[in-house]
Amino acid sequence: MWQRFLERENEIADARPGSSYGLCQPLPDGGWRYLAALQAAADAPVPDGMAAVDVPAQRYARFRHVGPVDGLSATFRAIHGSWLPAAGLEAVDGIEFEYMDQRFIAPGHPDSLTELYIPIR
């Protein structure tokens, strides 16, 4: 999905350059939808085959994942299973997202940085 998205990201008008997002959107059936995204103006036209998603302003806990993206699932499990409870925080239903900027080097690079944002109460 990311490869297809990167090939078309120039179609998104008024997109903020230099950063991208991976949105994890909860669905009513209990599943999740994952979207590759760029930040754009609220009134920007949506290219064919793409979707606009509003990420609500709310309180988020921010975590850092350093390393290849194939380790992200372990980091998410640690966040929900250990780190949030240890900090006395509770995740709430909402859009979780990954933020990548110039510190993200490549998907398999051991020094790539991805910031993870988890909505909390």
What brief labels describe this structure?
Multidrug-efflux Transporter 1 Regulator Bmrr, Chain A, alpha+beta, 26% strand, 5-stranded antiparallel sheet, Reg_factor_effector_dom_sf, 121 residues, 5 strands, GyrI-like
What do you see in this structure?
This is AraC effector-binding domain-containing protein. Pfam families: GyrI-like. It comes from Pseudogulbenkiania ferrooxidans EGD-HP2. With about 120 residues, the chain is an alpha+beta fold. The protein has a single domain, classed as Multidrug-efflux Transporter 1 Regulator Bmrr, Chain A (Alpha-Beta Barrel), CATH 3.20.80.10. Helix content is about 20%, strand content about 25%. It has helices spanning about 1-10, 70-85, and strands at about 20-25, 30-35, 60-65, 95-100, 115-120. Strands 2-1-4-5-3 form a 5-stranded antiparallel beta sheet, covered by helices on one side. A hairpin with a 5-residue loop joins strand 1 (about 20-25) and strand 2. The radius of gyration is 15 Å and the shape is globular. The model has no long low-confidence stretch (mean pLDDT about 95).
How many domain units? 1
Helices and strands, in order, run as HEEEHEE
Distance between the termini: 31 Å
Q: Give the structural class.
A: alpha+beta
Strand content: 25-35%
User: What is Rg?
Assistant: 15 Å
CATH second-level architecture: Alpha-Beta Barrel
Mean pLDDT across residues: 94
Low-pLDDT residue spans? none
How would a crystallographer describe the biggest sheet?
A: 5 strands, antiparallel
CATH superfamily: Regulatory factor, effector binding domain
Number of strands: 5
Number of helices: 2
Globally, the shape reads globular
Please state the oligomeric state of the protein chains shown: single chain
